[in-house]
C-alpha cells in the first residue's frame, strides 16, 4: 500500500542521511573505479553489476561488496548495471588510414563492433542491500549529486585503456640537422625522376639522397628480400670511416619531396629512425633542388608502412584455414592486448602455469581479507585477482562474471562470439608504476619485464611477511640461483659465486644440425636476388637453421679464455651451477648486430626438450688438491704531494 511505501521510504532516507556525513562528489581529478571491481574482473556489464562506494570511489563486484562493506564500514554504494545492444552494421566503408597511428583520427581503428549501451543505477545501503532507484527526487540533493558524479565519471580503467590504445608514430627533429655538414656541390640533382638511379646497384626505385655529399643509394633490403639493396646504408657506413664518428647520417627519399616536406631518415646510431629536418629546403637547395617545384612521385614511408600493415598475412601463426575449436574452459582464459602489452601477457600467462603461482587462486580470500584499504596499490591482491580469473571459470562465456551476449537488433546480424579474456590493467599499472618504460604503452622486452615483476613480488613478500601464506611465500625466489665461476691460472684456482635469476643463452648458428640444407637455400636465394633484385621472394617456406637447446647451454658453460686475470694471461674460466632454482628461466638471444651495424633477429629454430638434466653442470667448489689463487693485492695509496 502507498502508506507502507512512504513509511519504508522515510526510514530508508533517514538511514541515508545518517551515512552521508563526509561525502564529497567525485571530480575529474579523482580516480573512480566505476568500470571494474578492484578485487575481480566484474564490471557493470557482469550479471551482478558493480557497486561503487560513494566515499572511496572503489568498485566491487557482487561477490565482494558485502565483505568490503563489513571491513571498511562503508554503507552507501551506487550499483551500476549496464547492458549492450548491437547496432545494425553500416554499409559505408571504413575510412582508410592515412598515418601510422592507433585509435586516433586518421590512424588504424581499434574499435570493435559498435553497441548501444543502457545504464540502470541505484543507491544501495549495505549490508542490508536496500535499494533506491536513481534518479530519486526524495533523496537529499547532495547525495543525488554524489551519485550522479559516480555514474557519469570516466572510469579509472577506461582512462588507462584510452591512453594505452591511442598511439601515433612520433617523428622528432634530428640533432644533426641544425649544423649539418654539406660538401661542396660537385653535382646538381635533376628534378626529373627518370634521371635518379642508385649509384651502386642501378635500381630506380626506393632511392635516398644523402644530404651531406649528394650520394644516391637504394633503401634497405627487407627480411623477405624486398625493398632495396642497402645502397644508402652501406654508403653511410663508409662515410663513418672517413668522417668519424657519425659520418653523414641524414638522407631524404627522392620522390617524396614537396613544398610541404619529405621523408627524412637518420642512420646515426643514436637516432636510427625517421626524423624531420627543420632546414630541409636549405639543404636540398644546396644540391639544386627547389622544393617549391617538386611533386610527389613515390610512396612515402608512412604510406608503405600502412600498406604493409593492411596486407599483413598472419596465416602461418594463426593457423588460418584449419578447423580449430576455441578452448574456453577453466584455465584457458585469455588476456586482452592493452596497446603493446603482449610482452606482459606472455609473462603473466607463463607464471600462472606454475604450481606455485596457481596457489594464489585458493589463497585469494585470505589475501583480500588482509588487503589495505585501497587494493589497487597492493600487488598480492592484484596477483590473486588475476589468478582467480585465469584459473577459474567465472569469466568464461556463460560464467557468473562474464557479460551476457548482447541482443541482436531486429533484422541485424549477430555479433562476434563472446570473448573469453580479461584485461589486467590494474596489475600492469601497479607493476609499471615509477618505471619509465613499463609504465608506457611502448613495446618492451619480455625477459626484462619478467625480472622486474619477480623483483617487485619479492619486495612485496618481504614487506608483508607471511601474508601470502605458506604455499605462496617464495614466489620472488622461484627462479633464483647462484653460478659458480672457476678461474684457473698458473696451476691455482679462484672461485666466485654470482647470483642470477635467468640464463641468457647465445645461439651458435655454426652448430646447426641442418647446416648443409641452410647453405643450399641461401645460395639459391642469393642467385635469385642477383638475377632479379626487385622480384618478390618465392612462396615456399624458407629453410632456417636448427640448433639444439643443449648446444646453446653447452656454449654458455664452455671454457672461456681470459686475457688477464689477477696479472695472469690466458686464464681458463668455467661456469657451473652452485645452486639450482626450482624454475630455470632461459632467454634465447635472437637479436644481434650485423656487419652493417644494424640490429637484426635470427631466423632459427631451437627445440626445447621435455626433460633436461643439469647434473653435469653442477659446481663443487674448491676440490682436494686444488690450490687457491691469492686475491689481487690492493693498489698502494698514492704518495703525498711534495
Structure description:
By secondary structure, this protein is an alpha+beta fold. Helices cover 26% and strands 16% of the residues. It has helices at residues 2-19, 65-72, 141-152, 156-165, 231-242, 280-285, 301-310, 315-318, 342-351, 355-358, 360-369, 379-391, 425-432, 446-463, 515-531, 549-556; strands spanning 50-53, 59-61, 76-86, 101-102, 115-125, 130-133, 167-168, 172-173, 207-210, 216-218, 250-253, 264-266, 273-276, 334-335, 421-422, 481-489, 492-500, 503-506, 560-562, 571-579, 586-589, 591-593, 599-601. Strands 8-13-12-11-9-10 form a six-stranded mixed β-sheet, with helices on one face. It has a five-stranded antiparallel β-sheet with strand order 2-1-3-5-6. Strands 17-16-20-19 form a four-stranded antiparallel β-sheet, with no helix packed on it. Helix 12 runs antiparallel to helix 13. The N and C termini lie far apart (107 Å). Mean pLDDT is 83; it is low at 1-6 and 310-317.
Poorly predicted regions are 1-6, 310-317
Outline? globular
* Main sheet characteristics: 6 strands, mixed
- Provide the gyration radius in Å: 32 Å
Q: Label the structural class.
A: alpha+beta
Q: Percentage of helical residues?
A: 25-40%
* Number of DSSP E strands: 23
How many distinct helices?
16
- The chain-level mean pLDDT equals 83
* Lateral arrangement of strands in the main beta sheet: 8-13-12-11-9-10
Strand content: 15-25%
Cα distance, first to last residue?
A: 107 Å
Q: What's this entry about, in short?
A:
This protein is of the alpha+beta class. The chain has helices at residues 2-19, 65-72, 141-152, 156-165, 231-242, 280-285, 301-310, 315-318, 342-351, 355-358, 360-369, 379-391, 425-432, 446-463, 515-531, 549-556; strands spanning 50-53, 59-61, 76-86, 101-102, 115-125, 130-133, 167-168, 172-173, 207-210, 216-218, 250-253, 264-266, 273-276, 334-335, 421-422, 481-489, 492-500, 503-506, 560-562, 571-579, 586-589, 591-593, 599-601. The longest helix is centred in the first third of the chain and has 18 residues, at 2-19.
